[in-house]
Recover the amino acids of this structure.
């Protein structure tokens, strides 16, 4: 009897993990998003990425931080040469840098990763954050961990606000 419960609980966890990975991959294929700055606009491009290792999201997801990579060598160091090729083929490091945003949310319903530009001129920075669902809802049945890659302008400061917004 206890073994059946354990098997059922393990199956539920694996289904949840598969859903998280699929949702993260689908989000990376969205069209480029724009973030407005006080002195113009900047382009924040989600980068399509399919990890070659099973534990990628467990190892890099849910850490509430950004990792900035300003060169091809930095991306290769993080991902390995073969896997990094997916990103290196679509990023121009003379104009852009790669940002890995590691985040989490709970659900259902789950929050989503958003970004905004704060400040003006040289004080301008891009802030990623998790937008929680609207309304007061009971959540917390599962934790979703994610790690998403973006290409951003090379000179832009990037940060992560760990507090989920509502």
């Amino acid at each position: 009897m206890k073994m059946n419960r354990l098997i059922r609980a393990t199956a539920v966890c694996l289904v949840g993990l598969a859903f998280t990975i699929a949702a993260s991959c689908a989000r990376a294929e969205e069209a480029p998003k724009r973030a407005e700055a006080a002195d113009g606009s900047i382009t924040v491009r989600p980068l399509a990425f399919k990890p070659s290792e099973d534990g990628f999201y467990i190892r890099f997801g849910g850490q509430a931080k950004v990792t900035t990579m300003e060169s091809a060598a930095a991306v290769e160091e993080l991902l390995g040469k073969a896997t990094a090729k997916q990103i290196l083929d679509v990023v121009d490091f003379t104009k852009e840098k790669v940002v890995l945003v590691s985040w989490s949310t709970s659900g259902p319903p789950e929050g989503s990763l958003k970004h905004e530009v704060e400040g003006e001129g040289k004080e301008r920075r891009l802030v990623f954050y998790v937008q929680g669902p609207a309304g007061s809802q009971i959540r917390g049945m599962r934790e979703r961990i994610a790690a998403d890659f973006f290409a951003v302008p090379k000179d832009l400061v990037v940060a992560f606000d760990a507090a989920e917004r509502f």
Residues 65 and 102 are 5 Å apart (CA to CA). DSSP finds four helices and eight strands in the chain. Confidence is low (pLDDT under 50) at residues 11-39.
